[in-house]
């Protein structure tokens, strides 16, 4: 599918290149013609001024006052030169359509509506950012990650919990933080830039993976009673109290948060992250999966109530819940409305 999209994209780009060059050449020809017209107008004005100058000089050489007076009455000075018209060359106009076309053409490769290509039986593919048609890259999966996949869960975001600046797409599997807010917030919407999943866990072991567009995001889990209201100066409340645990990823480093206490961690370079929630042993573990699986931090706790995966993201950031076709529902997974506070 990727090869076909690239071929289609290259053909379209070549056609757009020819069209763009033709349009630029036409605009260039028109601009040059306008410049030549203005040049001829200036040249005509200069010639008229030179002719008038010569007549005045000739008239000044006459010694007869009467002749000078009569001839001077016939002098007609050239009119003033009208303001020059600048060439009609608008770079934004020339490039604006090209940029828009290129954006549309790129959609052929990054089409969000097309179905993902079915994985082959012989290749073990990583979790797919459904329904993104970009084919997953074949890779050697480390034994740890393959073992974690045994408890893989396909998650979706809960639209009712999403902050007004968070827009969901791809069947509620992707969220993006936009500057312009949506309509009125619902009763379950976070006042902070957060969204939680529709699924919760209260028993067993569960694992999911998330693709981030950049740093300045937080991944975690929370009890249903985590407040939706903004309290204090923090931009998020994941891990700020006893009802949640979170991993905050910033450009300069990461922080593991719980009950208002943070543990500083090294910077995370990869954008693919894994979360392993083991309710049997009371462990919540975060992994960085690129270029290989690396343990980032493990929380140890006695979890007493259902836990919802929860996320915070800065403006312009995007989070995608990766799906595996082989993932199966688990008895410990619930999809029901969470409590509000």
From TrEMBL:
Keywords of the record: Metal-binding, Zinc, Zinc-finger
This protein's record includes keyword Zinc: yes
Disordered, as annotated region: 112-131
GO BP terms, alphabetized: positive regulation of autophagy
Residues in B30.2/SPRY domain copies: 135-328
Keyword Zinc-finger: yes
Entry GO MF terms: zinc ion binding
Xref: CDD domains: SPRY_PRY_TRIM65
PANTHER family, A to Z: B-BOX DOMAIN CONTAINING, E3 UBIQUITIN-PROTEIN LIGASE TRIM65
Name by which UniProt lists this protein: Tripartite motif containing 65
Organism name: Rousettus aegyptiacus
């Amino acid at each position: 599918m990727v090869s076909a999209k690239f071929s289609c994209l290259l053909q379209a780009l070549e056609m757009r290149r020819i069209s763009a060059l033709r349009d630029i050449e036409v605009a260039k020809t028109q601009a040059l013609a306008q410049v030549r017209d203005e040049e001829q107008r200036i040249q005509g004005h200069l010639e008229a001024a030179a002719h008038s100058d010569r007549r005045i000089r000739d008239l000044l050489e006459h010694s007869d006052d009467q002749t000078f007076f009569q001839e001077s009455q016939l002098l007609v000075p050239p009119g003033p030169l009208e303001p020059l018209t600048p060439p009609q060359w608008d770079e934004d106009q020339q490039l604006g359509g090209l940029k828009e076309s290129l954006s549309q053409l790129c959609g052929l490769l990054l089409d969000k509506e097309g179905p993902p290509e079915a994985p082959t039986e012989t290749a073990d593919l990583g979790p797919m950012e459904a329904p993104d048609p970009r084919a997953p890259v074949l890779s050697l999966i480390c034994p740890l990650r393959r073992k974690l996949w045994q408890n893989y869960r396909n998650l979706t975001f809960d639209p009712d919990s999403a902050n007004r600046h968070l827009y969901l797409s791809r069947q509620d599997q992707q969220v993006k933080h936009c500057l312009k807010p949506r309509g009125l917030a619902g009763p379950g919407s976070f006042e902070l830039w957060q969204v939680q999943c529709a699924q919760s866990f209260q028993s067993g072991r569960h694992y999911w993976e998330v693709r981030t567009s950049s740093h300045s995001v937080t991944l975690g889990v929370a009890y249903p009673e985590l407040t939706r209201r903004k309290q204090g100066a923090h931009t998020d409340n994941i891990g700020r109290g006893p009802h949640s645990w979170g991993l905050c990823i910033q450009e300069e480093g990461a922080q593991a948060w719980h009950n208002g206490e943070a543990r500083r961690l090294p910077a995370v370079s990869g954008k693919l992250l894994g979360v392993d929630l083991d309710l049997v042993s009371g462990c919540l573990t975060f992994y960085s999966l690129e270029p290989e699986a690396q343990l980032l931090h493990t929380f140890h706790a006695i979890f007493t109530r259902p836990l919802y995966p929860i996320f915070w993201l800065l403006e312009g950031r995007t989070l995608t819940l990766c799906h595996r076709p082989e993932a199966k529902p688990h008895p410990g997974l619930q999809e029901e409305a969470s409590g509000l506070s």
